[in-house]
Structures are given as structure tokens and as C-alpha cells.
Design a protein that fits this description.
- It is a single chain.
- The protein is mainly alpha-helical.
- The chain contains 8 helices and no strands.
- Helix 1 packs across helix 2, helix 3 packs antiparallel against helix 4 and helix 3 packs parallel to helix 5.
- The N and C termini lie far apart (46 Å).
Length: 168
């Protein structure tokens, strides 16, 4: 239990300082979270992290992240071109790997890159476009939604099921 609390405090400090400071430090944190999130999805599907599809998937997720607001590193056309090239190379790995990577695994890598890249892109965009209070509001809403049973009175909570609405 002490280790969990210590890890939570250290993680909160590591997240809050770049979140408050913003700028390149926050971009580096979000990029690291993108890579870690993508590797977790690969590990769930038992795809090796040190492989060509994993490298291509991470690059696709980072391309999606770096096309964020106020960056102007890539235009929309350039982003689309990069993603098409990366996904074509992913499909080419099914052919060149002698069935080591099947189409389903490559499709999982591609959609994981889209899922993680777009998700963290909008997290970064919310911080850049709307500022710090918006991020705290989003986190508070997420925590309130996850733990709403703690905040709802017992009289309301017992009538919360769907079946009670249709049986009356």
C-alpha cells in the first residue's frame, strides 16, 4: 500500500509539473505517454515491441500527435501522406515477413496507432487551445463519472437501473 501511495505521488508530480508549465516539456510528456500507451496495446495483443510493425505503429501515432494545434510542423496533406506511406509499409510487412505478422496483427497495429495518436493529440490540443483550467475540468468530470456512486445519495442510487424505467 505504501508503494502505491508513493508511486501515485511521484506520478502526480511528474504529470502536474509539465502540465502546468506547458510548452515543449508538456509535449515531451504527452509523446512519452503516447509511446507507452501504444506499447501497452501491443503487449495486450502479444505483438513484440522490438519489431518492424511496432516501429511503424509508433511512428504513425507520433505523426498524429505532432500534427496538433499551433505546431504547424505538418500540413494536413503531409500528415495524410505520411500515414498512407506508414500504413502501406505495415501492409508490406505481412508479405515480407513470411506470415510472421498476419493481416489481423497489422490491422491491430494500425488501429492502435490511430486510437492512441488521436486520443493524445486531442489531450495535447485541449491544453494548447483551451488552457489549464479546461484540462482540470475534464479530469474532474472523468473522475466524477468513474466514481459517481460515491457522490449519489442511496435513495437515488437504488432507482438507477434501466429496468425500473420500463416496468412502470
Amino acid at each position: 500500500m505504501k508503494l502505491r501511495v508513493l508511486t501515485a505521488v511521484v506520478g502526480l508530480v511528474v504529470l502536474l509539473i509539465p502540465l502546468i508549465v506547458g510548452g515543449p516539456l508538456f509535449l515531451a510528456l504527452v509523446a512519452a505517454m503516447t509511446v507507452v500507451g501504444f506499447f501497452e496495446l501491443l503487449r495486450m495483443n502479444k505483438i513484440p515491441i522490438l519489431s518492424i510493425p511496432a516501429a511503424l505503429g509508433v511512428s504513425a501515432a507520433l505523426v498524429l500527435l505532432l500534427t496538433g494545434p499551433n505546431l504547424e510542423r505538418f500540413s494536413n496533406e503531409t500528415t495524410l501522406a505520411w500515414l498512407i506511406v506508414i500504413f502501406m509499409l505495415l501492409l508490406l510487412t505481412t508479405f515480407l515477413s513470411n506470415n510472421r505478422y498476419h493481416f489481423g496483427a497489422v490491422a491491430f497495429v494500425a488501429f492502435s496507432a490511430l486510437y492512441v495518436g488521436i486520443g493524445f493529440h486531442f489531450f495535447y490540443a485541449a491544453r494548447i487551445e483551451f488552457g489549464l483550467p479546461y484540462i482540470f475540468f475534464c479530469v474532474a468530470c472523468d473522475l466524477g463519472n468513474r466514481h459517481r456512486r460515491l457522490f449519489i445519495r442511496k435513495e437515488i442510487r437504488k432507482n438507477e437501473t434501466i429496468t425500473t424505467y420500463f416496468t412502470e
